[in-house]
Amino acid sequence: MKISLFRLLTELSSRKTVSRLTGAFAKSKTSRMLIPRFAKTYGIRVEDAEKAVHEYASLNDFFTRRLKDGLRPVDPTPDTLISPVDALVTGMGLIKDGLIVNVKGQDYTIEELLNHSPRMINYKNGFYYVLYLSPTDYHRIHSPVTGVIVEKEHVAGKVYPVNDFGLKHMRRVLSRNERLITYVQHERGEVAVVKVGALNVSSIQYVSPLPDALERGGDLAYFEFGSTVVLLTETGTFNSRSDLSVGSKVRMGEPLGTFKLKA
């Protein structure tokens, strides 16, 4: 009964109008007074931020902050896939005949996640990571590979929470929420970077200007409040690190695994 009530309340609150109102306040000058309390509540290391707290114009400005140079070194090992974000790994594994199995007890199809894109065939038996960004985390998204953007798609959708409750108790939120999908071609194949919107996320933004050619670790996009990135690699192109598992914490620039040499 309690879960059903929470689910109903979440359905009612997960409307774009709610996110727009929240986003409008977070971008207002008034919201800047909340920055110190917000940082303290979530244990954010303000000393890592590019600017001093008082220099941020709004809560949103602080939330989408850049970090000081050198704090997120990019792994230099050739042919590695790096984490595009600071995040908790909430799902990972082989994609089985187009199916992502058991992310917090729910299955997802590549077809739904990629909005029926013809490119879904490339990922039918690939590898996936579900990377959850909490409010504590650094919220800019970087390119996981060096390559060229070959396609982008914005998928309108809901803004259900993608935290533990949302993933467990709301129906397939990763494929129902708003998504910004970027396909990047690299030397060993292609990756799909699926940025998933969430409750109180007023938007997912690409950096401006967005280059066609990306460097591994280069700026790609950012979330306005917490959300999730689903990272997909093509069939037969990738080996994940053996020491990573669901529950691991990763940082942007850290290697997730290695691409295979082409036959």
UniProtKB/TrEMBL annotation:
PTM remark: Is synthesized initially as an inactive proenzyme. Formation of the active enzyme involves a self-maturation process in which the active site pyruvoyl group is generated from an internal serine residue via an autocatalytic post-translational modification. Two non-identical subunits are generated from the proenzyme in this reaction, and the pyruvate is formed at the N-terminus of the alpha chain, which is derived from the carboxyl end of the proenzyme.
Chief subcellular location: membrane
EC numbers: 4.1.1.65
A Pfam cross-reference name: PS_Dcarbxylase
KW Membrane (keyword) present: yes
Keyword presence, Ribonucleoprotein: no
Cofactor (UniProt): pyruvate
Catalytic function, reaction form: a 1,2-diacyl-sn-glycero-3-phospho-L-serine + H(+) = a 1,2-diacyl-sn-glycero-3-phosphoethanolamine + CO2
Subcellular location: Cell membrane
Superkingdom field: Bacteria
Note describing how the cofactor binds: Binds 1 pyruvoyl group covalently per subunit.
Post-translational modification Pyruvic acid (Ser), affected residues: S227
Active site: D86 (charge relay system), H142 (charge relay system), S227 (charge relay system), S227 (schiff-base intermediate with substrate)
Pathway annotation: Lipid metabolism; Phospholipid metabolism; phosphatidylethanolamine biosynthesis; phosphatidylethanolamine from CDP-diacylglycerol: step 2/2
GO molecular function terms attached to this record: phosphatidylserine decarboxylase activity
Classification via InterPro entries: PS_Dcarbxylase, PSD-B, PSD_type1_pro
Keywords per UniProt: Cell membrane, Decarboxylase, Lipid biosynthesis, Lipid metabolism, Lyase, Membrane, Phospholipid biosynthesis, Phospholipid metabolism, Pyruvate, Zymogen
Site (Cleavage (non-hydrolytic)) residue list: G226, S227
Top enzyme category: lyase
Membrane topology note: Peripheral membrane protein
Family annotation (NCBIfam families): PS_decarb
Binding partners and assembly: Heterodimer of a large membrane-associated beta subunit and a small pyruvoyl-containing alpha subunit.
Entry function: Catalyzes the formation of phosphatidylethanolamine (PtdEtn) from phosphatidylserine (PtdSer).
Homology family: Belongs to the phosphatidylserine decarboxylase family. PSD-B subfamily. Prokaryotic type I sub-subfamily.
Name assigned to this protein: Phosphatidylserine decarboxylase proenzyme
Species of the source: Paenibacillus allorhizosphaerae
